[in-house]
Specification:
The protein is α+β, with helices and mostly antiparallel strands and about 260 residues long. It is built from two helices and six strands.
Length: about 260
């Protein structure tokens, strides 16, 4: 994808988000206009908006009746002074002390007893809220359903119907949605510096072993020269003629004295 196509796609995305933000503002303004008109003209609406105003009033009334029926089934009552929820059997409000009005029991047309457990159920429901048994249909009773909303007689009404609430609060101001920030230009990273490899550690040769000086050889002991005995004149045995040492006194061959 070329750089021009990427720029166009980013611009299209930005404009699409801007359109969605504007449409949200339009819808919020329409809803606020409808709530403002209903608050100001709920008692004297124009003929073109009379059906819409009446539909909102009917929905508010039905919602109030449904809430009252829920409170009866839950066994609670609403304090008329502080609007606190208290037990329906209480004579006074536990929060402000106001005397509670006596509530009339559900009429026969407004009560529906479960055939299985005897629970008193509100009119219009089909199953018991305690045991789940299907309730018999009462003669002359009709199921409550919301009234249909009539369409606008003129196409000029583009205001959507507000939610059916008893008290319509003032709408919050529409938030101003800023335009998306432009995409930051990320610089290319600087080239990684080339770190030279460290010089190899010089190899220190091991010191030469100390030469072992041999001990000097012991001085040879020169034996003293044996005095040479001068040869004496040889003697001979007179018997056998054997040559004898001059010191010999007998012949070593024949034993004769010399």
């Amino acid at each position: 994808m070329s750089s021009e196509n990427r720029v166009n796609r980013a611009e299209i995305n930005r404009l699409t988000k801007a359109i969605a933000a504007e449409e949200q503002i339009i819808n919020a303004v329409f809803q606020r206009m409808g709530q403002t008109y209903f608050t100001a003209h709920r008692h004297d609406p124009e003929q073109a908006q009379a059906a819409n105003v009446q539909a909102v009033l009917d929905a508010i009334e039905r919602a109030k009746r449904y809430k009252d029926q829920i409170n009866v089934l839950r066994g609670i009552a609403i304090c008329p002074n502080c609007k606190a929820e208290i037990s329906s059997s209480a004579a006074f409000c536990s929060r402000c002390g106001t005397k509670m009005p006596v509530q009339a029991p559900l009429a026969a047309a407004e009560a529906n007893h479960c055939p299985a457990c005897g629970n008193r159920c509100a009119v219009g429901i089909r199953f018991c809220n305690r045991c789940g048994t299907r309730l018999p249909e009462q003669p002359g009773s009709t199921q409550i359903s919301p009234a249909p909303v009539s369409p606008n007689p003129t196409p000029s009404s583009l205001i959507p119907e507000p939610a059916p609430t008893p008290v319509i609060p003032e709408p919050a101001p529409t938030p101003v949605i800023p335009e998306p920030a432009p995409t930051p230009v990320i610089p290319e990273p600087a080239p990684t510096p080339v770190i030279p490899e460290p010089a190899p550690t010089p190899v220190i040769p091991e010191p030469a072993p100390t030469p072992v000086i041999p001990e000097p050889a012991p001085t040879p002991v020169i034996p003293e020269p044996v005095p040479t005995r001068e040869p004496q004149a040889s003697r001979f045995c007179p018997n056998c003629g054997t040559a004898l040492d001059p010191e010999y006194r007998f012949c070593m061959e024949c034993g004769s004295p010399v």
